[in-house]
Amino acid sequence: MKSFLMMGQSNMAGRGAIGDVEPISNPYAYMLRMGKWRPMSEPINVDRPIDYSGNITIYSGVGPAASFADSYAKHYNEKVGLVPCADGGSSLEDWKVDGQLFLHALYQAKLAMNISELCGIIWHQGEAECGDLTRATTYRERFLAIMDELQARLGVRLPIVVGELGYFYADHDPKPKYLDIVNSELNRLAECDNIAVASAAGLVDRGDKLHFDAKSQREFGRRYFEAYRGLFEKQ
Description:
The protein is α/β, with parallel strands linked by helices. It has helices at about 10-15, 65-75, 100-115, 135, 140-155, 180-190, 215-235; strands spanning about 1-10, 30-35, 35-40, 80-85, 115-125, 160-165, 195-200.
C-alpha cells in the first residue's frame, strides 16, 4: 500500500457539496480510520460536521484527495491510502513545528508508515495568510521550515504537491489583500526539486468566493496527481 498525507486547511479537507458529483468507487483506494485502512468514501477528512443538503455553510465535503487517489490507483495499478490531517481555517502558525496540527500529522504519518509506504504529501493552505503582508511574503520560508522538520522526524524525503489558491478568492469579502503574493510564494516552492504546484486556473467556487465547488475539486485532484507524477517519474 502506498500512502499520502493530506495537510492544509479547508480546501484540502473539502467543502464541495457531496451530492454535486458522482461518488468515486475504486477498490484500490483507501483512507486511514482508527489506525486501519478502510475503503475510501467521502468526506474523507471529517474536520467539521457532515451535511448532505448542499447548503453553503461550513461542513465536511468533497476535496481534491479522492480524485487524486483514484488517478494514482488507475495509473499505477496499485493500492493507495489517504491519511487525513487537514483542518479548516488553519494558518501556517497553527502548523508550526511542535504545534498540535504538526504533531497530529507526524503521529498519523508514523502510524501510516507501519502499515504502508508513505510516498508523499498533498497540501492546500494559504487563505489564512492573505490578510497580512508579513505572513504572505514569508510563506515559502515558513512552509519549508515545517516540511523540513516533519520529514527529518519521519526519516524520509517526500514528494510534496501544493495547490494554488483559487483565483476567485480575489472577489471574497473581506478582500484578501495579498492573494497574489501568497500564490507567488506557493509557485516559488517549485524551485525545490521535491515540490510541485497544482494550478487552480479556471476552477470555480461553490458560491462563497472561498471554497472550490465539488466539480472543481475533482479536477483539482487530477491536477495534483499529474503534478505528483511529474515529480515521481523524474526521480
